[in-house]
Amino acid sequence: MKRIFLLLLSASVASVSCSGGGSSSVGKPGTKGELIPREKTKSFVAQRPYGMVAIPGGSFIAGMAGESFTNNGETAPLKTVTVAPFFMDEAETTNAEYRVFINYVRDSIARTMLAEAAGEGGDGKGRGQSIGDYAYLAKKEENLTPYQEYLEGAGGRDDGFDASKRLDWKIPLHWSTSKYPDVEYAEVLESMYLPASSRVGSERLIDVSKLKYNYKWGDMQAAIADNERGVNFLRSESIAIYPDTTVWVNDFHFTYNEPLFEQYFWHKAYKDYPVVGVTWDQARAYCNFRSKLKSDYNESLKRRQQRPLEFRLPNEMEWEYAARGGKENADYPWGGPYLMDDRGCYLANFKPKRGSYMEDEVKGTYTYTAPVKKFKKNGFGLFDMAGNVSEWTVSGYNNSAYGFSSTLNPSITAKADNKKSVRGGSWKDVGYMLMNGARDWESKDSARSYIGFRTVQDIPEAAVKVKRVNR
């Protein structure tokens, strides 16, 4: 009898230990003292963010696949590495996209100053007809939730969020002087502009030095080193985010680039051109803003959503893997080895010959930057991974990084290093810098007329597929 019992027990164990996806669990949740998760078993589907493409995970040979003219440690040796899947912007961040960031910061600052001046509010009709309409939401909400009451009594959350100073974004802002609702409103809004003594002519211009984006981020490396996680590792940043438009003059001496200095960032003609004059820190601030934008939207929905993964800059290996577009040992994103197609048209925007930044319109090069998506995309669906503007990566620059980095999802970093890797080559570079394995660097606090960026977002390894977003 004892032997029969043991045989039955072993058969029972075998039937559950090698499950191939049975139809049901041991019982209803909570019955018979069994530990059964109550979460729904529906598979997670990663939603593709607007303007991004899914880069599948895989292995590739990193480094200079073709001939290396410099023969130094920056391009050798070749190394096989594996990269996890991620989403990546299909094109470089444009002026129009970055202006959304600028306008958000501008409006946030204006609304905060208006809310401070409004005090208790209550003297308007709720449509921006008086400065009182711009009071903090806590001043206008009569029935606070228990949680809101608790936060007010406790002085806000531990991470610095103050619920009593939430802005009312439903009230429209008036930027035209003819629509200022009252004198108090005019006094606040006018403080956003350059004083008359600092203006060139009579044009009213926003004082861009006031456009600072404040945010916090977790220092994961410090938390890991101390083997703990908490608010002690939150780092605060206050970044002046307006692009440095003087780069068009400062980067090139004895050159007439003043029209670009005056027009490139704000003129509608350049809305689809890649943003330049942005430092590494400004690019990271943009990533944080994009993450906040999605997170705030999810929180506004009645149905609870999965917390969105953060947007960030790609690391150097992710960038190179994406640039290759799935092609083995390719010199360029389109394969190679030539910079022209069979019709004699250039395949990227770069400096084709010495002293010649543009041959002719037929061959398809531009004097300066080109609108994004003007050249063919690579095998992953990415545009301008070579030429147009070089792109910031999150990685610190080290000329021997390929030798010591991991072969599994490598992230090349250099502690406290001001040098950051930039990849892809630009409109001012010769064809060699467009090669997938070519590397370059720039100081993270520098802004250039030939450096831009694009963002990425992780895809959970457990995601079964990518859900497309209607465009």
From TrEMBL:
Q: What is the lineage of its organism?
A: Bacteria, Pseudomonadati, Bacteroidota, Flavobacteriia, Flavobacteriales
Indicate yes or no for the key word Lipoprotein.
yes
InterPro entries listed in its UniProt record:
CTDL_fold, Glid_motil-assoc_lipo_GldK, Sulfatase_Mod_Factor_Kinase, SUMF_dom, SUMF_sf
Which residue intervals define the domain Sulfatase-modifying factor enzyme-like in the entry? 51-456
Which PROSITE patterns does the UniProt record give? PROKAR_LIPOPROTEIN (PS51257)
Q: Which domain of life is it from?
A: Bacteria
Q: Give the residue range of the signal peptide.
A: 1-19
User: Which protein is depicted?
Assistant: Gliding motility lipoprotein GldK
Q: Could you tell me the keywords of this UniProt record?
A: Lipoprotein, Signal
